[in-house]
Amino acid sequence: MSPTPAPSPTARVLLVEDDELIRESFAQALRRYGYGVDTAADGLEGLETLRTDDTFDLLVLDVMLPGLDGIGLCRKVRETSLVPVLMMSARGDGLDVVAGLEAGADDYVVKPVDTFVLLARIRSLLRRATYPAGAAGPSTTALTGPSGGTDDSVADDTARLVFGNLVLDTAGMTVSVDDAPVALTPTELKVLLEFAAHPGIVLDRHSLLRNVWDYGWNGDTRVVDLCVQRLRKKIGRDRIETVRGFGYKLRR
To answer: Is there a single domain that holds both residue 144 and residue 117?
Structure first.
């Protein structure tokens, strides 16, 4: 059964893959589903492409690239851009996966990967990148008390959510800490919104995988842990609490 067409047919993807057969087959599949695709055969070529064209909506990076590997390229990208990054790893032991996520990637697939799986992961990342205020997903109704009244310690209006020195503007999709803007990737922002929709409530890793990454119960929960680690570095290590054996919660 074929997946549904891409929701954003004008989305542009940069695919960096050194294996010509894989590169061309994936590029053709993406174009067939309406994506604009540029390709690069190594990390340095990919970096040069990004330096001359910053309008890509998503990057797909192989880990094992000549010249500059995918992890190094991802780190370079994260110095200046929050564009969604999907890593492809040929190693089944997960070392590349962890390294890629720590470098700032939003998601990963392990090769060999079915084309339909790759398309599904790309659609999921693009949905996160264009997540609008008020859309299906984390709901601000969860920020009201049991009687329907707003908890003043959490929200002072329908768009501005306050957690101590952390402020989320759900209309403008901006985050600040101590009045200083914080740059979050689309995935990091959606994870934070998920926490903000359930303040003080423990969210287990599998729930976060379903709601943010669209993974079923068999998803790798390391992606959650590493994203939370990155969030803590940006919004404060004490703001997201680990509840050992259960998951995480956002402190009010």
So the answer is: no
pLDDT digits (tens, 9 = 90+) for 128-154: 776 443 333 333 333 333 333 334 444
Distance CA 16, CA 40 (A): 5
How many domains are there within the chain?
A: 2
Rounded (5°) CA angle 236-208-106: 70
Classify 93 as helix, strand or coil.
coil
Domain annotation covers residue 81: yes
Asked if residue 144 and residue 125 are part of one domain, the reply reads no
Q: Which tokens go with 63?
A: 């880990």
Beta carbons of 154 and 252 less than 8 angstroms apart: yes
6-22 residue pLDDT tens: 444 579 999 999 999 99
Q: CB pairs under 8 A, 24+ apart, for 103-112?
A: 103/71, 103/72, 103/74, 103/75, 103/78, 104/74, 104/75, 104/77, 104/78, 104/185, 104/230, 105/61, 105/74, 106/185, 106/186, 106/187, 107/187, 107/213, 107/223, 108/223, 111/22, 111/62
- Whether residue 62 sits in one domain with residue 108: yes
Closest-CA residue to 230 (of 70, 85, 121): 85
Could you give the C-alpha distances from 35 to 31, 57, 98, 119, 162, in angstroms and in order?
5, 10, 28, 10, 38
Owning domain of residue 47:
12-129
pTM here is: 0.72
